[in-house]
Every structure is written in structure tokens, then in C-alpha cells.
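Why run this: before we spend reagent on co-expression, it is cheaper to look at a predicted model of the complex and decide which construct boundaries make sense. The entries below are exactly what would go into the expression plan.
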Amino acid sequence: MEPPLIITRRLTKNYHLEGYPVHALRGVSVEIGAGEFVAVMGPSGSGKSTFMNLLGCLDRPSGGEYLLAGERASDLSGDALAAIRNRRVGFVFQNFNLLPRTSALENVELPLLYCGVPAAERHQRARAKLEEVGLGDRMHHQPSQLSGGQQQRVAIARALVNDPVLILADEPTGALDTHTSCEVMALLQQLNRGGMTVVLVTHEQEIASFAHRVISFRDGRVVEDHRIDQPNDAAAMAAQRQQELEA
Amino acid sequence: MNLLASIRIALRALRVNKLRSSLTMLGIIIGVGAVITMIAVGAGAQARVEEQIRSLGSNLIIILSGSVSSSGARLGFGSQRTITEDDAYAINREVPAVQAAAPALRGAGQVSGGNNNWSTAFWGVSPEYLEAREWNIAAGKPFGQADVQGSAKVAVIGETVSKNLFGDADPIGQVIRVNKVPLTVIGVLERKGQSFGGRDQDDVILMPISTARNRIMGAAQSKRRTVNNISVKVREDASMAEAEEDIRALLRQRHRLQAGQNDDFFLRNLSEVLGAREESSRIMTLLLAAVASVSLLVGGIGIMNIMLVSVTERTREIGLRMAVGARARDILTQFLVEAITLALIGGLLGVALGVAGSYAIGQFAGWRIALRPESIALAVGFAGVIGIFFGFYPARKASRLLPIEALRYE
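The model came back. C-alpha cells follow.
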């Protein structure tokens, strides 16, 4: 059997906030296999965001071990971590984090800029991903000319453009209305069905119900880890809501 | 990430804040413009001094009568003539380092010729005078040894005299009267322009020294055949100091001066005097450039200031770039290129301002300016260095941000 994509062993993270030590993670051991759709839940301060940041190599653990696709990411140099973020992980943020005054196409190209892909190939790959998320006709729009849902889809295209092994979504629907949230979740589900591993942080039960597995955090520890055999179908819910709106 | 992409990102970022970018550049524009203008003005002054040195003749020593004591009162230089025509001929003969030594006897008076008259100075000189002073004949011919022996009634006139007496007509062959003595003009001197004292060097008449002494000044001057000065040109390959020593020794011997007695003549090395002037104008240029560089430095601090603000404002952007794979050095490059771009665009606009400013000063103040390509290259290069120097700290600050903290920055 293929080894899990993500393995963490007794992962800890401590930092100082205004002089007081904070134990954000107190030993988290989790395995996530390739192709899983995992929702990470927990109240604020539970350590779920810290866990996400460690998975995304945005931050280094204080202790323990983290292996991503067989590679020990817990003790890599800054440049090596940047390379992992560039090629292996795609981020989707709550507030989209698109560059302002920059077209959708150029926003999607951004990760390719940092791994030396020639301009022509950059355009072509970015265009393909934008078409994949259904924004083929909005390529030259700037973020301010796009709706929240469209902006988040640009962000997803950006996360996908370098063909990562893992999508990390931190509250991706936090800034969206219910209907748009469903559409974005439908897109993530669709990617997951195509084989992409998705890890999602949320505090909304409804959003978590689209995942196959829910890991709950409290006080820096995993308190619950269960599978959902029949996740909700976001596409179907979105279509249903659309009908309700039209009616 | 390649450099071209960095430059494009930098240009985009600068375009977003047009007003801010242009104000930041203004510091560099003014700085570079000031450096170029000041160097042009300084170099112009320097070129003028150099020209004056050339007009004087190089390796020139002037011998003047020294101070003498009369009944205990020391009189000034030249108050009593102590040097003679024969001193000059002796120097010519006996000092090997000397190429030419020419005595000169000065007189002044009213000159008439054509239908005009003019008050000017005339000099009785030996034929070596032109060689000693590196002065050429523009038209006609100079007088020779035979003219001196025969006190020939000939003269060579300067351009100013020629203009004043004959206008645009050819003066050669014309007769001028100097203090009523008729002399035939046989040559016109090459134009020399103003001396560094502001005297018009072309307002002059040269004639054989015997003619001046015997025919114009009369017997009173002829007693000991004294002269006003002797111009000595030292050979190019000889040392000025050695030549001076030899001339001094020879003159002391000829004037029968005892060991303890002061010289009764005075040697003036004019190229040294002008050399000092040239040196001072060079220092002036440096000073002007240094003052102008201060404004360039202030412009650089302006760049640093704006870059620091920019890094703070764009912390989230930096965080995002790091999240999608930018390495610390990519961020460093991006901000450094931005600072250098600001500095270089400012530098190029500054060159335009400096060149325009230099010409404006040349036009309106009537000063001589000398625009040198190397000063332009220097100023632009300096602007680039300032961009790197003052851009480095903000860029490094940006590159050292932690991705997670940069992303969360509010």
C-alpha cells in the first residue's frame, strides 16, 4: 500500500505572545493519505490554523516530525521550504490574497514566476487552469472587477497551476455567502474526485460536511478524528439553492 | 525568477504610486543634475586656466629686476633696473638648459597709422622673444638678428593694434609711427587673447630692441643697456629648478654679488603660479561636486524612506509571494530592483536636467562650461550605487519577513 501523503509525529509548536509562552500544538500525530478530503475543525485558539501553517511549510514546528510525500519537511532550509510551497502545496485563503491591480491571469501565473517557467508556457498553463475553474472569460479582469466567488476561484486556479500534491484551504468560504460557498466547495470536491488531496480548515459544521474525514482540535491536541461515509454533494446543493432563488 | 520579470514587477509597483515614485525620483534627479552641472562649471573654469597657461608659453621663467637698497631704504622689484640685455645674451650662451632667452624693453606711447591713432605699449625685444613666449606670426614675417644690429625701422603688431589702426585692411607693408618714428609693419602676431590678469595680450607692438632703445626712447635708456625683463624658455627635457639655479648663479656672478648679498634680480616661474591656480580650480571643481553629491545622498535617503514605507504597506503581498514559493532572495531582488529602477530612471532624467542646466548657465551667466561624458557616466553610476545602497536595507527587511507573519499582517 502506498504510504500516506502526510505524516506528522508528535508535532508541537510553541511561541511567545507579548512575553507569554503559548503552546499552540501539544503533540499532534496524524496521517493523511493521498486523495483524501479532510476538514480540520475546532474553536479559535485550538491550534487548527497553526497545524495548517505547518502542513503548508509556512512555519516550522518547535518539535516533532513532519513528512510530506516522504520528504522530511520539519528540518529543511528556508529556500527548500519555499520550493515545497511552490511545487507541492497550493494555498487557498479566506480573504483570497490576490494581488490588487493585477489581472486574474497574472495572479494565476505568480507561482510559475518563482520556478523559472518561460513566459509563453506560464500564460498557457495559467489560462488552462482559469478555464478549468470556469473563468475563461474573466482572464484579464482585475480582482476588484470580480465577485468574491470569482476571486476565490482565481485563487484556486493559482493554487492548482503548479500541479501540487496538496491543496490547503484556510476558511475558504469565510468571506462568501452561502450560495457562493457551495459553489466553491463544489469546485474543491470536483478537484478531490480528480485525485487531489484537500485539507480544509473551517469552523462551520456545514462546510465540514462536504469532506470525507473530520479532524477536530482543542487546546493544541486532536480530540476527534472520524470519517464521513456519505459527504454532502456541494454541486447538488448549489444547484438546489439556485432553483430556490429562481423560484 | 529572472531579472526581466523582477524589472517588470518593479515597474508595475512604481506605476501604481505614480506621484510618490516621481517625488522620490525628484531627489535623485536634482542630485544627479546638480553633480553634472557643477562638474561642468568647474571643468569649464579649469579649461580656461589651462588655456591661459598655454597662451603664456610653457617652461617659462621671467627675470625681473630685483629690489635694491638705496641709503637703507629697500625699494620694490624693478624700482631700479639691474638686468641688462647682455645678461640675456649671456644666459643664452652659457646656460645649457635654456632654449631661448630674450630681453624686453618696454615703452608706451601714441601710435598712429592708417588714418587712426592708438595708445599702446611697445616692446623692444630680441628675435628670440617669440620663441621664448611660444608666439607665432600669423601673417608676414618676424624680424631677425640683422634688424636688431641695424636698428631697423620695422615692427610686428598684435591683432588689437592692427584692428584699431587699419581695421580689416592688411597692415603688412603699412607704416606706423611710434612716438613719431616711422616703422614698417612686417608681421602680425597670432591672437593670444586675455592674460589671466585680464590684460589684452594682443594690444602690443614688438620691434627690434635696438630700434626701441636708440630710435624711440633716446639716449637716456641706453646707458647700461638695462631691460625691463628677460623671458627665458627652458628646454622641454631640462629641469626647471636646475635651470633656475644656473641662471641665478650666472646672474650673481655677472652682477658681482658677494655671498651674503641678496639677489638684485628676481626669477618668476609663471607656469608654477598658474599651476597653483589650476590646482585651486581643480579643488573648486571637487568641492562643487562634493556639495552636489550631498543632494544626491539626500535623494538616496528619500529612496530608502519610500522603500521602507512600501515594504510595510506591501507586507501581505510579500507574505503571499512567499506562500506561493518566492524565496527570500526573490523578495530581496524584487525590492532591490525597484529601488535601483527608481534611482536609475531618476539618474537618467537627472542627466537631462544636468545637461540642460549646464547649457543654461553657459548661456545666461556667460561662463565657460565643459560637459564631460565621464562626469555623466559617473553621476548615473553613482545614482545606481545609491539605489543599491539605500535599497538594500528595506529589501533585506522585506526578505527576512516570516511568511506566516507577513500573511497575517494587518
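Helices of chain A lie at 48-55, 78-87, 104-113, 119-132, 148-160, 178-193, 205-208, 234-246. Residues 63 and 194 of chain A are 34 Å apart (CA to CA). Bring this page to Monday's planning discussion.
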